What does this fold into?
Amino acid sequence: MNIKDELVPYIINNLKRFDQRQNIFGRMIYDEKADFYQKGIYKNIKKIIKRNEKGYSHLDFAKVMSSWTVYDYFHEAFSWDKLDDANSVMTKPKLKKFLVKDKISITKEIKNISNIFGATQVGITKVNPLWVYSYDLDGNKINIPKECKYAVVMTIKMNPSLIKESPNFIACAETGFVYSKMAFCISCVAEFIRNLGYKAIPMGNDTALSIPLAIDAGLGELGRNGLLITRKNGPCVRICKVFTDLPLEVDKSIEFGVKSFCENCGKCAESCEAEAIQFEKNPSFKVLSKSNSKGILRWAVDHDKCYKFWIKNGGDCSNCIAACPYFPTL
Ligand code: SF4
Ligand code: SF4
It folds into this structure.
């Protein structure tokens, strides 16, 4: 692995903040011109279950639905404020603000507690405002308090043997389960920071783009499949983050040869039943979908084709994760 002091992990040109309503789920809600307008991925589920194919049974689908429970229903996990509606009968004491005398040691504490709460990897970066969505899915303008300039970015590993089942519901359930782990992890990390008297804004896929933040935080590189490629677990991870005003020591971006490897690989593109991943040798500024940010050098993925495959499949797909040579060995 090569760690460079001044590594610039991506090349951008006139990049603007992305409106979350332009991502594939936003366009499913708002974009009347999209051929997947108002079509959720579970639209065909009854027909799919009736076919009774392996990995697509009613039982398997119940696993998918239940796996998302914490992410979808525990709204407090994403609260920007301290939580105050506990089931516990104990009065919660309020302590004075913790004085940070040493950024390095508080950063170690944050990383350690994040690992304890479920993060596989933890990296710290200054928040690049370009990665913050301009508007959220409900059309609210996003304003991050300017003092929240640090991001604690975390990956959580998915179980490779379950993801290898992709695109069936066994793999979908593992995706949902790790999203639920994300909600657990970010809410606990955020409360840890708030209990020191600092602000914490926990996020899953909402509020800011996770992949560039993870790259900035030194957790991996961007692959041809449009995903974060980590050193140990390749793309077999999910990303979550917490923004904070707690002063932290930032990490450096890393480079371990992903871009040049991707130039000669293309296994993710071969594995994609939707033909949504480019085969071109070199990355470019070309966009393939309204859901691609403009102004960044990379292999853009055609999110329209990808999402339409998800509808046909009745669930999300991880083929381009499982096919990657960086995928962890089973
Ligand atoms: S998730 Fe599936 S459909 Fe989408 S790009 Fe990856 S392989 Fe293709
Ligand atoms: S499958 Fe190959 S081309 Fe695709 S992201 Fe992984 S290493 Fe890159």
Q: What stands out?
A: The CA atoms of residues 113 and 237 lie 19 Å apart. Residues 20-322 form one domain. The two ends are 23 Å apart (CA to CA).
